[in-house]
Amino acid sequence: MTQLLRDRRGAFGFLVLVVVVVCAIAAPLVTNGDPIAQRDIVATRFIPPLSSDPHGVFHPIGTDRFGRDVWTRLVYGARISMGVGVLAVLISLAVGVVVGAVAGYWRGPLSIALLGLTDFALAVPRVVLLLLLAALWQPSTALVVTVLGLTGWMGIARLMHGEVRALAARPFVEAAVAVGARRLRILARHIVPNALTPVIAAAALGIGNAIILESGLSYLGLGVQAPTPSWGNMIASGNDTLVNAPWVATAPGIALVLVVIACTQLGDALRDVLDPNVRRAP
Amino acid sequence: MLARLGHRLLAGLAVVLGVVTLTFFLLHLAPGDPIDIMLGPAATAEQRTAQRVTLGLDRPLPAQFASWLGRFARGDWGNSIAKGRPVRAVLGAAWPDTAWLVALSLLLSYLAGLAIGAVQAARNGSRLDTILSVSTVTLFAMPGYWLGLMLVLVFTYWARMLPAFGTAGLDSDYLQGGSWLIDRLRHLALPLATLTLIGIGGTARFARGAMLETLSQPFIVTARAKGLRPRRVVGHHALRNALTPVVTLLGLSLPALFSGAVFVEAVFAWPGVGRVLVEAVKARDYPVVMAATAISAVLVVAGNMIADVLAAWVDPRVRGRSAMP
To answer: Between A and B, how many CB-CB pairs are < 8 A?
Structure first.
């Protein structure tokens, strides 16, 4: 952990993510009011950033066309966008780790079938599949999470497969076989925990990617549905008011870019810190 | 090499077939019915049944799939349910706009990405390297549609320099020669810039890594020891060798670019395949979705194969590998 924070990229990524997560969790405390409620629309719509509306309520990044506070929606949107990203990656992790571990440890037809499935899934154009699934079923947050999770596990499975295969030839595994441990136990207790390190770094990158894709789907109207704020559908609604209220689309985009950069930087730093081969002098 | 290519071709065909099968059954298993969209809520049960029979939607799914596959392979892609026009005409009108947008941005982002990556690797750790790294990481993290919106905000609404949507101005048909070309180029500028900038983020990061790896190898030390000028070592010895992984990435980035194009086309109202696909999916226009999916799967597979061939072309070692069983 200290090593991670000593890395400049790691420290940056960690800091940004902590701030965003704390804000998202403490949303009612750092914002003023309900992200969905529309009050006095005519008087409070399109208030520019850093000014107060006629009722004396201060809006740090202005209001949108329904007079809703953009900062409030941004913070509540973080709950959705971050939540979707993290949950989707958890699903990808679960599927990827199981597929990769099984394919790496058991040789034979099962392994070949699983690897074939992985290669096939990699070759499927992801956005096309996402569009299809999101458009065909009723768009909802749960659907977006599932779809992102089920289309993002292949890279993790590949990584896991390579790691498990390399670890299976190591002496400590032989030792476990020698004392008579069952294969499943060897895999679950001895191999998988040792193979997880690069997978965790890849997962951090995956969260950034999932957040971008979620926002893209929501932008096309196929993801999280209004009035629930997500960064993607906030940008979509700001799209229409780009001329008279550019802050509505700009703010969630900046938040999104910051979080995605934080994820990639943290992922890169994690990979370097966790990988003993790259470790530099202390 | 040929045997390997043949093997890849077979595997590619299998992937395309798999994607098409998956899409077909997903489309038909999902709730929602194109008949509802075509006829509206006022249609009677008889009208709906008649329409269903006309479209062949009353037959069992496997039979529908088999007949679709047969017709598709023979080049009969059916009619768009939503538009009534032949699918080939719908896609035929759309694909050139996507193709040249994607091809140009692929070319530009690779040239720029390679150059930036090489400069960064040559000056590893310098302030320039840091600045370029921060910029490429930022570009890499940006959703294409948002970058597009921001460019529209700056160049269309604030600077009033460039048009924000379509491939040509309203008066395009009346323009001739030079002014026609300028009109097209002005419309191309923002979508192309968006896709290219996003692409540069990924390629430059990757090229930098590949260059750093190559620059740490013994033959570079030798080249330096021979007293070659640094520019020649980087430009001639290192860049050529770093090209192999970059070229492999090229094949993989074709589908990514296509995905990017889906979103960028939505922002700029660019009448390409991406927009056709999004509209068709929303309207449950089965024939159009199936054809567009099949084409994008072919594109992905072809991208990977082209990358394979290119990798063999740049790197004799890859070529040699096929000689061994």
So the answer is: 116
**Can you say whether residue B56 is alpha, beta or left, with left for phi > 0 and alpha for psi between -120 and 50 degrees?**
left
SS3 content of chain A, % helix, strand, coil (to 5): 70, 0, 25
pTM of the predicted model over 0.90: no
Q: Is residue A214 within 8 Å of A223, Cβ to Cβ?
A: yes
- Assess B91–A contact: CB distance below 8 Å, yes or no: no
Does A281 score more than 50 pLDDT?
no
Q: Are the beta carbons of B31 and A137 separated by less than 8 Å?
A: yes
Cβ contacts of B69 within 8 Å, gap of 6 or more? B20
- Judged by phi (left if over 0) then psi (alpha if -120 to 50, else beta), residue B160 lies in left
The pLDDT value given to residue A279: 47
Q: pLDDT tens for residues A28-55?
A: 887 777 777 777 777 777 778 877 777 7
Residues of chain A with Cβ-Cβ distance to B137 below 8 Å are 261, 264-265
Please give the C-alpha separations between residue B125 and each of A225, A240, B130, B246, in angstroms, as whole numbers.
Answer: 45, 43, 7, 22
Dist. CA A42–CA B320, nearest whole Å: 72
pLDDT tens column, A127-144? 888 888 777 777 788 888
Report the pLDDT value the prediction gives residue A95, as an integer from 0 to 100: 95
Contact B263 A257 (CB under 8 A): no
Instruction: Determine contact, residues B277/A131, Cβ cutoff 8 Å.
Output: yes
Q: Is residue A86 classed exposed, middle or buried when 0-12, 13-18 and 19+ CB atoms within 10 A define those classes?
A: middle
Which residues of chain A lie closer than 8 angstroms to B27, CB-CB? Answer: 132, 136
Hey, what are B325's tokens? Answer: 């069983």
Task: Report yes or no: B26 at the A interface, CB cutoff 8 Å.
Answer: yes
Alpha carbon distance B51, B297 (integer Å)? 30
pLDDT of residue B32: 66
Contact at 8 Å (CB) between A128 and B299?
Answer: no
Rounded-to-integer distance, Cα A158 and Cα A190, Å: 19
Contact: A131, B296; criterion CB under 8 Å? no
Asked if B140's CB is within 8 angstroms of A257's CB, the reply is no
pLDDT at A277 over 80: no
Inspect the interface and report whether the beta carbons of A253 and B143 lie closer than 8 Å.
yes
pLDDT of residue A207: 92
CB contact under 8 A, B146 and A264: no
DSSP-derived letter for residue B174 is G
Give the chain B residue whose CA is nearest to the CA of A209. Answer: B141
The tokens describing A99, both together, are 């597929």
Q: DSSP labels for A250-268?
A: HHHHHHHHHHHHHHHHHHH
In this complex, which of B18, B149, B255 lies closest to A120 when CB atoms are compared? Answer: B18
Chain A nearest-CA residue for B153: A242
At A280 the pLDDT is 46
Q: What is the pLDDT of residue B318?
A: 63
Q: What is the pLDDT of residues A81-92, one digit of tens each?
A: 999 999 999 999
Rounded-to-integer distance, Cα B150 and Cα B148, Å: 5
The nearest CA of chain B is from the CA of A105 a distance in Å of 25
pLDDT averaged over 10-residue windows placed end to end, chain B, 325 residues: 77 85 82 70 78 76 84 83 83 86 90 91 88 90 91 87 78 76 87 92 88 87 86 83 79 76 88 87 82 82 78 70 42
